[in-house]
Amino acid sequence: MQNTEPEELPREIKQHITRHQAPPGLGRRIRYAIDATAEARVMDGVETHLSPAKALTPNDKLLGWLSAWTRQWLSLGFGAACGALITLVLLYFQQTDHAAQQFQQQLVSSHVHSLLVAHKTDVQSSDQHTVKPWFIGKLDYAPVVIDLSGEGFPLVGGRLDYMDGRTIAALVYARNQHLINLYVWPKGEAQKLNPGSYAKQGYNLMGWTQANMQFWAVTDASEKELRQFMGAIELANVAKN
Amino acid sequence: MSDFKARFETEILPHLDAAYSLARWLTRDENAAEDIVQDAYLRAFQYFESYDAKRGDCASRPWLLGIVRNVCYSWFAQNKRSHELIEYAEDADDVAHILDHHGDAKTPETILTQVRERTMVNAAIANLAIPYREVLILRELEELSYDDIARIAQIPIGSVMSRLSRARAQLRQDLRHIC
User: Which of B1, B21, B41 has the CB atom closest to A19's CB atom?
Assistant: First the structure.
């Protein structure tokens, strides 16, 4: 290489250059975020080839037992057909179950991520008349945006998020020290997860449908508070229509 | 899974200070640097598997710093600070230019304490244009090879050399009273 080494900096200068130290807590937050991501990776099946010894799910076990049973007791042709049918049915349920798990994980990951990355909101306002128009042109539907300060759930703002293969509206509400992410999008064809209340990784999830929209709320507030929140949203929606 | 994550944690997490320092130097913004480092780590975690499989001679620290650097550049773009980059993006190495810097070069001898020198050195570096600053920091603080720096900054080695040389000359000029 014909390049010559650039002239070095004098020691007087070099010794003073500050190498900044990461603030305390940053490492911990990163670990935490990675744990959340790692969990999502497992759920997404990315990791399956890395961990061949992954524990069998109850469905796997059942599947193995049933296919052994059919092989032993039924004649070859009929048995194979039966086995295939049963396998298909079971696979269908397994996939549905997997999709539901994955969907729950998606909700929790999105919620955790919104708390971590200082990206809770794209539009920060407690005024529903500011937040709602912000979504216009960004989504192919108009989410219902209601401030619930009166019910103890002040609106913090909104942002776009990505869920279930589409861009959707995420509304952020506060409850004392807790945040609630409310994901709203049109009720699709098949729903990945039945509406209802779920708990995952210490977060409470609540899903319901109303006026052709589906709502999923995720929070670290209590389930009771989440129910109140759902009630408040439902009431406000009814009042609005 | 835990094995994969454990390897990431033992190999990549220890570079946290280097990552933060680079982000802090590039953005000159404490809060942004934290967000950027966290984002960079999440990306690194996603890419770690493919990096791990074919890393060759690319050590993990320059690999991570490359990601940090790219996240910083996305941040510049988002924060409409791209003018800082565009200004120097094209043939910047060949264009003679004078970097703006604090005009208070003639500091009385009496205040040349360690602390002040340090402040002045850091201010002078912070005043370098980003393409010069990044090369200087990667070389002087992280002591990376020209190869690694060229990879991270996505420029030929010759440009690394000329930018480094120019950055050092600028610092010597700005800080001549303390040398």
Answer: B21
pLDDT, residue B124, reads: 93
**B125 CA: distance to closest CA in chain A (Å):** 8
Close Cβ partners of A17 (under 8 Å, ≥ 6 residues apart): B121, B122, B125, B137, B140, B141
- Residue to mutate among B3, B21, B30, with most A CBs inside 10 A, is B21
C-alpha span between A196 and A204 (Å, rounded): 11
The answer to whether B33 faces chain A, any CB pair under 8 Å, is yes
Contact A6 B25 (CB under 8 A): no
Query: What average pLDDT score do residues A66-90 get?
Result: 64
Chain A residues near residue B175 by CB distance under 8 angstroms: 12-13
Q: pLDDT digits over B92-138, tens only?
A: 333 333 333 344 444 444 444 677 788 889 999 999 999 999 999 99
H-type helices in chain B, by residue range?
A: 2-11, 16-27, 30-53, 60-78, 82-89, 114-126, 130-136, 146-153, 157-174
Whole-number pLDDT of residue B17: 94
pLDDT for residue A83 is more than 80 = no
In terms of Cβ atoms closer than 10 Å to its own Cβ (0-12, 13-18, 19+), residue B49 is middle
Of residues A68 and A120, more confidently modeled: A120
What's chain A's average pLDDT? 78
- A50 and B16: CB-CB below 8 Å? no
Please name which of A99, A1, A126 lies closest in space to residue A44, comparing C-alpha atoms. Answer: A99
Contact present, A131 and A157 (Cβ < 8 Å)? yes
CB contact under 8 A, A7 and B39: no
Which pLDDT score, from 0 to 100, does residue A137 have?
79
**Exposed (0-12), middle (13-18) or buried (19+): which is B118, by Cβ within 10 Å?**
middle
Neighbours of A54 (CB within 10 A): 12
